[in-house]
Amino acid sequence: MSQTGKKGLAQYRSINEDDEETLALRGRRQRRSPVCIWGSFFALMTGTLVFIGATFALLAGFGFFSAPGDARGNETACELPNVRVNCIPEGGRSETEDVCLERGCCWAKEETPSCFYPKGFGYAVDGQPADTSTGKTVNLTRKTGQPSQYGGDIKTVRVDIFYETSYRLRVKLWDPRKKRYEVPLPTPEPQGQASNPLYKVSISREDSFSFTVQRTSASRDIFSTATGLILSSQYLQLTGILPSDNIYGLGEHAMDRFKLLTNNSVLTLFSRDQPPNPDKPGQNLYGVHPFYLCMEQDGSSHGVFLLNSNAMEIELGPLPSVTYRTIGGILDFYFFLGPSPEAVVQQYTEVIGRPFMPPYWSLGFHLCRWGYDTANNTLKVVERMRDSGIPQIMCPPQQGRTGSG
Ligand SMILES: *[C@@H]1O[C@H](CO)[C@@H](O)[C@H](O)[C@H]1NC(C)=O
Ligand SMILES: *[C@@H]1O[C@H](CO)[C@@H](O)[C@H](O)[C@H]1NC(C)=O
Ligand SMILES: *[C@@H]1O[C@H](CO)[C@@H](O)[C@H](O)[C@H]1NC(C)=O
Ligand SMILES: *[C@@H]1O[C@H](CO)[C@@H](O)[C@H](O)[C@H]1NC(C)=O
């Protein structure tokens, strides 16, 4: 069950290890005199100049030389917010007060998570949002003195809001100065904007930038972003507060239930040719579907899809809330207003593509596996099935899967 997979992305990237190393160095910087630090630092660097150069590049990349954001001395910023966005998502040895404060975050030992982003951590709204022919646009600027611990923070972010149809909204946060990877999926390109949408989007600049999507008919907020927005070169994070904990989807995972757990459960998505194994629940699996369906209290449903194909993890918190963390691409969200669950799924597949109609013959009995290393061995299996009177329409030896596969 990947909800226990606190290790999450740490399995796939060394950023967390690098981070720990960097933070360990930062910790040392705090406790010892600078002379002693640099003394021991260079004593460690007995390697070549190239190695030292590379290390400096790494440290600079992780913000070693920039002033960390500082929530200390500002108790207002650390009053427990209604949603606590984990500032030490990698957990483990890093989960200490020192590391927490060094990241400019707030520490409350008794809480889960103990280390969380202060109010107002993120981006400031730059000027006024402007109307466009398809919706709205607004520029954001990274707040000064609040670097993320991940390095390469994107300083200026563009938020484009598209009122695509009455039931479909798209919100795209991207870097206007540098092209980043976007999933090459052809998506509908609406002209103009929906005239009578089921939703309303509002932008807030209080503390920091946030946006809220509301279901107009019920005046209900269905997705309201919280503190801790990060868009950096290799780490993007956004938290949304949800109207109900009836949340389904976010496959492929091995959580043994349809209604997802929201006790800070973590689902990791990074596809790999690997079947589910109940004994190793944190493993990555075949499919990646960063889509959930949420049923609101009155039975209306909506769906949220993050169009991003990088390795990601999604944490569901008790408020309830959802936190997306991904290591690349952009934050490109689609909201589907349903309101029936069937309508939500139809609206979703309208964007990602419908499943195809399977051919009639493919509905028959199949025998499929890897390990048929020669044509003769495949033939033997077919004959064995025939001899035993087992009906069979297809016996496809899987491509690229010969021998022990
Ligand atoms: C402390 O944090 C609050 C809430 O984010 C903010 O409004 C205020 O300006 C901060 N005060 C200082 C001195 O930074
Ligand atoms: C956002 O920034 C760009 C580039 O500086 C500018 O052309 C555009 O007018 C800005 N948009 C808004 C809504 O301020
Ligand atoms: C959430 O609850 C489930 C079931 O009660 C439990 O197995 C799991 O460990 C919990 N997860 C976390 C992160 O607390
Ligand atoms: C496959 O089986 C046929 C018939 O039994 C035999 O003649 C042939 O040598 C076999 N081929 C291989 C590569 O074993």
Automatic annotation (TrEMBL):
Q: Describe the location of the P-type domain by residue ranges.
A: 76-119
In terms of InterPro entries, this protein maps to: Gal_mutarotase_sf_dom, GH, Glyco_hydro_31_N_dom, Glyco_hydro_31_TIM, P_trefoil_dom, P_trefoil_dom_sf
Gene Ontology CC terms: membrane
Single GO BP term: carbohydrate metabolic process
Q: What keywords would UniProt list here?
A: Disulfide bond, Glycoprotein, Glycosidase, Hydrolase, Membrane, Transmembrane, Transmembrane helix
Q: Which domain of life is it from?
A: Eukaryota
Q: List, alphabetically, the Pfam families matched.
A: Gal_mutarotas_2 (PF13802), Glyco_hydro_31_2nd (PF01055), Trefoil (PF00088)
So where does this one cross the membrane?
A: 35-65
Enumerate the subcellular locations listed in this protein's record, separating them with semicolons: Membrane
Q: Which GO terms describe its molecular function?
A: alpha-1,4-glucosidase activity; carbohydrate binding
Q: Which family does it belong to?
A: Belongs to the glycosyl hydrolase 31 family.
Its protein name is Maltase
The organism named in the record is Geodia barretti (Barrett's horny sponge)
